[in-house]
TrEMBL record:
Organism of provenance: Streptomyces flavochromogenes
Protein name: NADPH-dependent F420 reductase
Domain of life: Bacteria
Name of one Pfam family that matches: F420_oxidored
Every Pyrroline-5-carboxylate reductase catalytic N-terminal domain range: 29-120
Gene label: npdG
Keywords: Oxidoreductase
Amino acid sequence: MTSSTPSTPAAKAAQKDPWDLPDVSGLVVGVLGGTGDQGRGLAYRLAKAGQKVIIGSRAADRAQEAADGIGHGVEGADNADCARRSDIVIIAVPWDGHAKTLESLREELVGKLVVDCVNPLGFDKKGAYALKPEEGSAAEQAAALLPDSRVAAAFHHLSAVLLQDTSLEEIDTDVMVLGEERADVEIVQALAGRIPGMRGVFAGRLRNAHQVESLVANLISVNRRYKAHAGLRVTDI
Ligand SMILES: NC(=O)c1ccc[n+]([C@@H]2O[C@H](COP(=O)([O-])OP(=O)(O)OC[C@H]3O[C@@H](n4cnc5c(N)ncnc54)[C@H](OP(=O)(O)O)[C@@H]3O)[C@@H](O)[C@H]2O)c1
C-alpha cells in the first residue's frame, strides 16, 4: 500500500478531530423540571459558565422563584414556554412524570435538541436498583414520544449536591453523551464542556442508554458506602 491509499493512517488524519466541538455559547438552554435539585444544579453551572438558561416548571411562579435563587441571568417559565423559547431542552423531571411531561410538550419540542438525564430507578430496603422501561430506557422512551425532536441523553451521573455547591469552582467528572446524530452529540458534549472540570464523551447510541441510566444505582451504592458524591472518568481518551 502507498501512503495515498485511503485506508492508511495519513488518510485517517484528515478526519475531524473528535474534540473539535461546536461553539454552543449562543444557544438557549431550557431545563424542564428545573425547580428540582438536578435542574437547579445544571441551570446554575451552565448559567455561571455564560449560557442563557430558562428554568421550566409546571408552575411559572415556582420556576421564577428558582431562577431568582440562582441569579446569573437565569429566567423562569412554565414548562411549555421554557421548551418553546429554548434551543436545547434538558429533561430533569422524575421518571414517574417523564412520559406524561413529554407527551404534553410534543408540539413545543418539535425540532429541539432534547437532552434526557432521567434515571429510571426504584428504591427498596436494599438500596437503589434499575427499572426496565418498556422502550429500553428513558431516552428511548423520549425518542419514541418525540418523533419530531432530536433526542440525546447525558448528565445522568452528576451529583446534584456538587452541582449546587457554590463553593466549588469545578466539577471533576466526565459526562457520557448518547445520541443518534453526531452533530447533536457534539453540541451536548460542547455544552458539558462549558462547565469547568467537566468533559462530554460520546458513549454510544440511544439503544445503549439503559446501562448508562442504570449505572446510577451503582453510584448511589458507592455514595452510601463511602459517604461521597461520586462521578465518573473515562480513561485513555
Ligand atoms: N438529583 C440528582 O442528583 C440527579 C442526578 C442525575 C440525574 N437525575 C435525574 O434528574 C431528574 C430530576 O431529579 P431531581 O432530583 O431534581 O428530581 P425532583 O426534585 O424530584 O423533581 C424535579 C422537578 O420535576 C417536577 N416534577 C415532579 N414531579 C413531576 C411529575 N410527576 N411530572 C412532571 N414534573 C414533575 C418538579 O417541578 P415542578 O413542581 O416545579 O414542576 C420538581 O421540582 C430525575 O429523573 C433524576 O433521575 C438526578
